[in-house]
């Protein structure tokens, strides 16, 4: 990486009360121009504009170290913005140009004999899809950018029933020989990837390659007891703790715990907290997935009341429902549905079902949660008034990493898979009935007492 300092120690610029550039030293003017700005228009580099905007809004001197992207280099600098009459004076010092880190571009370093490349960010959203020029793979590469990795690939288990990408995520290590199918065509592929690091050295995503129509011999099986321990420990140590800190700090910023802030920054903080919670939920799902697929997994078989569990699940989601303009009709306190099962796991299933129903229900509608007994089974039905699920997709919603519409905001595609596995492990089942345009009904059954 090359580092170059600007020969002028301090660069200056003046801006009017709206943040438009009046004049600037040549280096600053050039930086602004390369970012799409000009004299008489708003300052273009986002990091510099943020410092100026804060100084103007708060009426105080704002000074901080920032990094500005500039063509093929990043520029580190110390920016100082000072309100001056009806405008702002900007002074920049410590100008240092550093070469931008780029991921490997040699496809041999990503995957031997790769036909084309893909990349993701830390949340596994696609940032690059680069199929072979002149060949059609049934999808629009540009339309996939920003969508989950599963919008491009339908990930499959290997010959040992394992999912290589889960181990790669847990250990923040290279991904090797993950079987998959192109979601657009169903064509069989094999994907591998190296890890991209972010500026702080943490997990920044994958840089991957794709082999078409290849059959991969499975690697020697990992000892059954070793992978779950390494997997869950890796997730807890590498992801859960830092994510919890990010969420806590973002919530503090959003709540203006340290003093008033602008609405736009409060909104940014809320988005960060929401994304952090989404990733924590993914961690929880992956840990659950690893647990329920172990041969020795056995949930408790205790006396429970499905009506009581359903009321608790509805109560946990009442605030979210109110925020979405949705009501939850729950079983009354006189209702009872004695059953046998694991209380915590049953609550987990129902929170997932009710949460999904709230997410897909239009504002002004109600989610119905009811219980009944049918022969030797106790059941609880969760009914929504959403857009429904096509008959051919009824089985798909319970598959691993499966989402009917990957473009929708949602989870990891593991929730319903885990819920059905849990239900069946307790001697029951989870099913769906639905018609497009008429909502969906998910029914959990457990052995009755």
CATH architecture of the largest domain: 2-Layer Sandwich
**Secondary structure tally: strands:** 19
> How far apart, in Å, are the first and last alpha carbons?
68 Å
CATH superfamily of the largest domain: Histidine kinase-like ATPase, C-terminal domain
Give a verbal description of the structure:
By secondary structure, the chain is an alpha+beta fold. It folds into 4 domains: 3-99, Beta-Lactamase, CATH 3.30.450.20; 107-212, PAS domain (Beta-Lactamase, 2-Layer Sandwich); 226-277; 302-447, Histidine kinase-like ATPase, C-terminal domain (Heat Shock Protein 90, 2-Layer Sandwich), CATH 3.30.565. 32% of the residues lie in helices and 29% in strands. The chain is built from 11 helices and 19 strands. The protein has helices spanning 26-34, 46-58, 107-110, 141-144, 164-171, 226-254, 263-292, 306-316, 318-323, 343-360, 415-425, and strands at residues 3-5, 10-15, 21-24, 62-70, 73-84, 87-99, 116-120, 126-130, 153-155, 175-182, 188-197, 203-212, 302-305, 327-329, 338-341, 366-374, 377-383, 429-434, 440-447. The strands form 4 sheets. Strands 1, 2, 3, 4, 5 and 6 form a 6-stranded antiparallel sheet that branches. A 6-stranded antiparallel sheet has the order 8-7-12-11-10-9. A hairpin with a 2-residue loop joins strand 4 and strand 5. Helix 5 crosses helix 6. It is globular and about 85 Å long. The N and C termini lie far apart (68 Å). The relative contact order is 0.07. Mean pLDDT is 80; it is low at 103-108 and 214-230.
